[in-house]
Write a structure and sequence with these properties.
Mean pLDDT: 82
Number of domains: 2
Strand content: 15-25%
Number of strands: 12
Structural class: alpha+beta
CATH architecture of the largest domain: Orthogonal Bundle
Radius of gyration: 17 Å
Number of helices: 6
Order of helices and strands: EEEHEHEHEEEEHEHHEE
Shape: globular
Low-confidence stretches: 1-7
CATH class of the largest domain: Mainly Alpha
Distance between the termini: 37 Å
CATH superfamily of the largest domain: Winged helix-like DNA-binding domain superfamily/Winged helix DNA-binding domain
CATH topology of the largest domain: Arc Repressor Mutant, subunit A
Length: about 200
């Protein structure tokens, strides 16, 4: 891990099969040390379980070899842009016992701060800004990962699962991030009586 002009790198590119420490473990440690740094994993492995492992370790994106150089540059640029998306946004978004500070990119659950990776923050922020609105898988993928994404459902499922573990009392029966079957997800504010009640089943 290095620094540029006294600050951490904005973006890290990791190969899964690095000598010594694995890329997944390196990703996990970088995410702990620099929660806001963008991380892209590069690998020859294309199995869904490998992608999920990388995403769960904190990767923002996953590029499979062989890839075109322009594709890699586009994905690097997309992660960098999203790293700074909310720099000029200010204010708070609240729902139930959750409070999201848009200016500092911080989340509190009650009086306790909840640590989020950049992608977890981006997804939760987008959901909370659209409370009560069913959001399709494609819309969420476009908004969080970029317009070139639309079929990578494992990205969404992995990050929704990680967010539920951090913000829900019972991740198996969530109060906040609800599944819209065959459509996508909807963020529910349990303090708002006008929003629909929680479905009986979640994915």
């Amino acid at each position: 891990m290095g620094a540029v002009r006294g600050r951490p790198f904005d973006l890290v590119l990791l190969d899964v099969n690095m000598p010594g420490m694995s890329g997944v473990e390196a990703c996990r440690q970088i995410r702990e040390l620099a929660p806001r740094t963008g991380i892209i994993m590069v690998t020859v492995r294309d199995a869904e379980e490998d992608k999920v492992r990388a995403l769960e370790a904190g990767a923002d994106d996953y590029v499979t070899k062989p890839f075109r150089f322009r594709e890699l540059i586009a994905r690097l640029g997309a992660v960098l842009r999203r790293t700074h998306t909310d720099m000029e946004v200010s204010g708070l978004v609240q729902a139930g016992d959750l409070k999201l500070d848009l200016e500092r990119r911080l989340l509190w659950k009650g009086d306790e701060e909840v640590r989020l990776s950049p992608k977890e923050y981006d997804l939760l922020s987008f959901l909370m800004k659209n409370q009560g609105v069913p959001l399709t898988h494609m819309k969420l993928l476009h908004a969080i990962w970029g317009s070139e994404y639309g079929s990578e459902l494992e990205y969404l499922r992995t990050y929704v699962r990680m967010l539920r573990k951090k913000i829900e009392k019972d991740p198996a029966r969530p109060d906040y991030i609800l599944t819209e079957p065959w459509v996508g997800y909807r963020f529910r504010n349990p303090s708002d009586p006008d929003q629909a009640t929680r479905p009986s089943e979640e994915e």
